[in-house]
């Protein structure tokens, strides 16, 4: 009976219910929408559990947010889902927050047609209106989307902006001949693996000297983005690897893709939101008592001596 109710809650073809059962067990526990009773027959009409779960998704979308987030990671993630008329790509805008004590949470997601400035501004303004006004926000990490960068400047103008190095490295690779890709990668890595910002700038100067003639546009774009690619150097050194990419979001979506890949058919896009909510809820539950130790250690190492009390 649990699988039958999970099938209704997700809204997919019956052939996919076995693949859904494990993933939506989390939603059943979280939302009490698809959980089976301990005994007896089914009493709710078909689709009721889907409506209940949709209500939980809406609660997640509108829940108040605390204004104690220090780091905010933003990314647009494309998912390919199977529909009756064929594969469909769905774009999700995602926000992931980290507090100064290392606690973390997937804060929000929404569907969008494109990563435009208008889409990102609407998403960030919603976070702001729900309580994340940016009072303690020190850094926003994002990909290289120009619309997102403009939206960050509009909604959170006082936060520092760090562009994701993983996205930048992909752009560098895609813009060069195959025979040069390994050398370009090696020289670019010397920039973000530097010991400090000054050394990173010198590494860029070497990069420019080597590649300016062959790839002037690539070098020009890297130089244009360099200030926001080096922002992380102004923060505690133990956090550099965490703060220079949006990998934390991408790792969550590895799980999303693993769960959705075997599913035979989604009846509608709302069913995609249900499983995203279910998996996000599971991550947030797991992280409640598991902080990122590096952030706690960095906070203590960089606390001014006068503030240390026993």
Summarize the structure.
With 310 residues, the protein is α/β, with parallel strands linked by helices. It has a domain at 165-244.
Name the beta content range: 5-15%
Question: Would you report the number of β strands?
Answer: 5
Total of DSSP H or I helical runs spanning 4+ residues: 13
Estimated radius of gyration = 22 Å
Helix-strand makeup class: alpha/beta
General form: globular
Strand order of the largest sheet: 3-2-1-4-5
| Residue windows where pLDDT falls under 50 for at least 5 positions | 1-24, 26-48, 302-310
Compressed to H and E, one letter per element, the order equals HHHEEEHEHEHHHHHHHH
Helix amount = 40-55%
pLDDT averaged residue by residue: 81
Question: Could you characterize what this model shows?
Answer:
A hairpin with a 4-residue loop joins strand 2 and strand 3. Helix 4 runs parallel beside helix 5 and helix 6 runs antiparallel to helix 7. The chain has a domain of 80 residues. The N terminus and C terminus are likely disordered. The protein is α/β, with parallel strands linked by helices and 310 residues long. It is built from 13 helices and 5 strands. The chain has a 5-stranded mixed sheet, with helices on both faces. It starts with a helix and ends in a 9-residue tail after the last helix.
